[in-house]
Specification:
mainly beta
Length: 86
């Protein structure tokens, strides 16, 4: 049988949005016969650090045994892109 401790601390850390971008130097872009080039990546819902394993600590509902439930997992989303100026 599984035993749950429902008195866990509800403190947590969430990395919800990480964005990184890089502008290619103009000298390099001009060698490629373009005015500018920017590469970027964005990560949404990157990670959650919590004492609650397999549950979203921001969900306030309760399931059986007063355990937090979340019927839909929070999606991890990646966006990649290039902006090219001709």
């Amino acid at each position: 049988p599984v035993s749950w401790n429902v008195d866990r601390k509800s403190t947590f850390v969430r990395l919800s949005n990480i964005s990184l971008a890089y502008n290619v130097p103009a000298e390099i872009a001009h060698k490629w016969k373009i005015e500018g080039l920017k590469a970027y990546i964005n990560v949404v819902n990157a990670a959650v650090f919590s004492s609650w394993k397999f549950f979203d600590p921001e969900y306030h509902g309760t399931g059986s045994g007063n355990l937090p439930t979340n019927s839909t997992p929070v999606p991890l989303t990646f966006n990649f892109g290039l902006n090219v100026t001709l």
